[in-house]
Amino acid sequence: MATILAYTSPALGHLLPMSAVLSELARRGHITHLRTLSSGVETGRSLGFETEAIDPDIEAITQDDWRGSNPIAALRISASVFSSRAEHEVDDLAAAKARVMPDALLVDVNCWGALSAAEANDTPWASFCPYTPLLRSPGVPPFGLGLRPLPGALGRARDAAATAVLLAPLERVARTPLNAVRARVGLAPVRSMDEFLRRAPLVLVASGKPFQYPQTDWGEAVHMIGPCTLDPGAEVVPEWLSKIDRPIVLVTASSEKQDDADLISTAMTALADEPVHVVATVPAGEPTSLRAPANATVCRYVPHGLVLGRSVCAVTHGGMGVTQKALNHGVPVCVVPYGRDQFEVARRVEVAGCGTRLPAKKLSVPRLAAKVREAMTMAEGARRVAAGFAATGGSARAADLFEQRVLALA
After folding, report:
1. What are 294-330's pLDDT values in tens digits?
2. What is the CATH class of 3-226+392-409?
3. C or N: which end of the chain has fewer Cβ atoms within 10 Å?
4. Do 3-226+392-409 and 239-390 show the same overall fold?
5. CB 166 within 8 A of CB 73
6. Which residue has the higher pLDDT, 125 or 292?
7. How many CB atoms lie within 10 A of CB 381?
8. Would you state the pLDDT for residue 1?
């Protein structure tokens, strides 16, 4: 039995999938401590973890990448946010370790300071990534733009150009503050984000093939473990949900603030005359501000697993968590990406044949209606992805890897 300290960024979409792995480790008898966003403390404790909030100064640095005018501008904002938080994470993780005295660490991939501090220390550790990581792989386009894979010399040339012209300058901006944090904890500088993220002895990625491109190969230390879905509160079916007698289309907005409110209203209008019932969740918005037609219900939160079991399609903003959760249920998706990693999610859905992609800039009632109808015909592709997720071994495989490659060194 070991004592594990898990450390997350202030994002619900990171807390929940990591908690699926932590729950499996706790089931095996390990003592689990969690440091996470303040609004997630109750969730962590309800799952049986000793849970405390991260430094409030970290949460005060808000993720406002949605203000970026294009994907590169948004990535630049994200890099600034992560590097600003990193300064506080070094001391915050040290304080948590002093209190918990853990045998091993599991650190969120977005916590650049905590990752650096973990690398500089002698406590065995691993990183956890709930989205497609910024790692290079032959034949896979550079992360961020949602480019379609192109084979052969043409694809290699395009990917090299995109990396050099668009992403290399962004990396240079991110490396300066990152390397300053690394120097503070006594580490050598890194030359790329790929190099930085590979410093972890074990990287657990909450995804799997064929959702990820077939040619993806991130190396021996990086393991896909499926979506690691977790649905707090799924034990009780709300009365309003049990009364719905039509097939359901789940529509979701981001759990972190971004400019995606028009997705909910557009979807409800597009499907108002269809023989379905729309269940829309707006965790970062205000449900009462949206006027729902007769065949729609809007709420801040409902366990998605309860809805997906009766769904024929999910319309998502491209968040990795909810998109993969739908596919894990064999439900095809229509993805309308707005920013962050959502362009990559949408492209993978399209390439895997498990749903459709509609850029947010092209969002309209007739276009969305057509894309949803098309997605509904792609259930076979969704089931194929679900089978691939199951083949990863999921949270049990993640716990095996953590025990074998991290706890064995404790």
Report:
1. 999 998 888 899 999 999 999 999 999 999 999 999 9
2. alpha beta
3. N
4. yes
5. no
6. 125
7. 20
8. 86
Distance CA 275, CA 270 (A): 12
CA distance 134 to 44: 27
CATH match for 239-390 among 1.10.10.10, 3.40.50.2000, 3.30.70.2860, 3.20.20.20: 3.40.50.2000
| Each residue's pLDDT tens digit, 24-48 | 999 999 999 999 999 999 999 999 9
Distance between CA atoms of 298 and 308, rounded to whole angstroms? 15
Residue 283 is predicted with a pLDDT of 65
Can you give the residue ranges of every domain in the chain?
Answer: 3-226+392-409, 239-390
pTM for the full model? Answer: 0.92
**Where is 298: in which H helix or E strand?**
strand 296-299
Distance CA 113, CA 3 (A): 22
Phi, psi (rounded to 5 degrees) for 33? -115, 140
DSSP β-bridge partners for residue 279: 250, 297
Contact 168, 188 (CB under 8 A): no
Beta-carbon contacts of residue 362 (< 8 Å; ≥ 6 apart): none
| Cα–Cα separations (whole angstroms), residue 255 to 158, 316, 403, 408 | 34, 12, 31, 36
Place of tokens 């959760």: 325
Spatial CA neighbour of 345 closest among 159, 69, 67, 71: 71
Give the tens place of pLDDT for each residue, 248-298.
999 998 766 656 678 999 999 999 999 999 999 886 556 556 778 899 999
Sign of CA dihedral 392, 397, 401, 404: negative
In this prediction, residue 81 carries a pLDDT of 86
* CA pair distance 62, 19, nearest whole angstrom: 22
Q: Strands across the sheet with 104-108, in order?
A: 50-53, 31-36, 3-7, 104-108, 125-129, 203-205, 222-224
